[in-house]
Amino acid sequence: MDANTPHVIVGASLAGASAARTLREEGWQGPLVLIGEESELPYERPPLSKGYLMGAEPREKVFVHPQEWYREQRIDLRLGTRVTAVDPAAHRITLQDGATLDYAKLLLTTGSSPRPLPVPGAELDGVHYLRTLGDSDRLRAAFRSADRIAVIGAGWIGLEAAAAARGAGVQVAVLESAGLPLLRVLGPEVAEVFAALHRDHDVQLHFGVQVQSLTGGPDGVTGVRLADGTVVEADAVLIGIGITPNTALAQAAGITVENGVKTDQSLRTSDPDVFAAGDVANAYHPLLGRHLRVEHWANAVHQPRTAARAMLGQDVAFDRTPYFFTDQYDLGMEYTGYVEPGGYDRVVFRGDVAAREFIAFWLSGGRVLAGMNVNVWDVTDPIRELVRSGRVVDLAKLADPAVPLTELPDAG
Ligand SMILES: Cc1cc2nc3c(=O)[nH]c(=O)nc-3n(C[C@H](O)[C@H](O)[C@H](O)COP(=O)(O)OP(=O)(O)OC[C@H]3O[C@@H](n4cnc5c(N)ncnc54)[C@H](O)[C@@H]3O)c2cc1C
Fold first, then answer.
1. For 37-47, what is each residue's pLDDT tens digit?
2. Measuring from each residue's beta carbon to the nearest atom of ligand 1, which residues come in under 6 Å?
3. Which residue among 191, 221, 241 closes a domain?
4. What CATH number corresponds to the domain at position 108?
5. pTM to 2 decimals?
6. How many structural domains does the chain have?
């Protein structure tokens, strides 16, 4: 390996662009190649289910950097290019056209893909997934032509798209196998807030249902048949039942894959010269004392910065507190922290839940594991402090909006 051997990043989206930027900022002057399968410049996905989907945010605004930036930074950006193999022993990757490229260090930011719904009819016209710019364009077009849309899955993507569809005047039915939306992430106490939000916007909510098939024919989808025989009629269907990390490259290369590409706290995989970050990485989190794969924007921005530093030989660890956000109708929310499904013993509310202006805290043994501020702003820093401190706090004061979060006493 000589000084002309590039650092190579596979996956030209948010995480890939973030790593490329940090490599330059941290002084890497040598060759740098960023390879992506999509033909678009690296872009941000959150607007695809919000402002961009609603037509409120222009296309130019979703791109992480303009084209010139990659030129100025001497980043060899290869779009529309799929990497088909990694050979860690030879430090070499293969591209779809059979060409090969040697690397000094390799970063995998291959992200994730929507989980397909394995039912008859899922291939019909008018059935959508939402991951790419093209998906968002097609869904927006469907909002114009459809009177009724069925959304399968009441997760973040499904609920945000439901809100966008209502904004476009489309009737919406949400079909979810669990008893409430977002139940695994939020638990029943807070999930109910999102059910009420969508009910108040005239979304038809079907919980505890199983999808048996999608109905329709050559003219496209006409509805969703549930296991109990009910058919929910729809002119378009959006499937949002989760994502799976794009691990095939790593797996075939013999790199350890376990719910994503497994890394240590510096984002190094089981191969010392291969790193992973963003949606695809299942990284050891030193504060949580476990591996965690995070499928959110902030992680795709920050984690690759640590990976880039590690690629340059710096002794670094990624220990940021997980954070994500959503916007639905007039509800804006930020969530800071991490709670395993069912891994809390109490929820404390501060503020007015009915008015959707509050903070919810998930606790275990009196310690705040996570906090979610809904239409309350500029509190992420103190919530993060509470989570990181591991303090056993006074619950009455935690619930009292008159007591600043920065002045909470410990439990007496
Ligand atoms: C519609 C939508 C809305 C979202 N809203 C929010 C939100 O409100 N808040 C939030 O916190 N998060 C949100 N997210 C999640 C957030 O966008 C993701 O966490 C983030 O995009 C992950 O970035 P990434 O770069 O790791 O992966 P990705 O964005 O998945 O990018 C991976 C890239 O790698 C490419 N690739 C894969 N394999 C190869 C290969 N073999 N060769 C070449 N290229 C390859 C893919 O084509 C893709 O372009 C949303 C996601 C979506 C889809």
1. 999 999 999 99
2. 10-16, 35-38, 45-46, 48-49, 82-83, 109-112, 130-131, 157, 246, 249, 278-279, 295-298, 300, 324-326
3. 241
4. 3.50.50.60
5. 0.98
6. 3
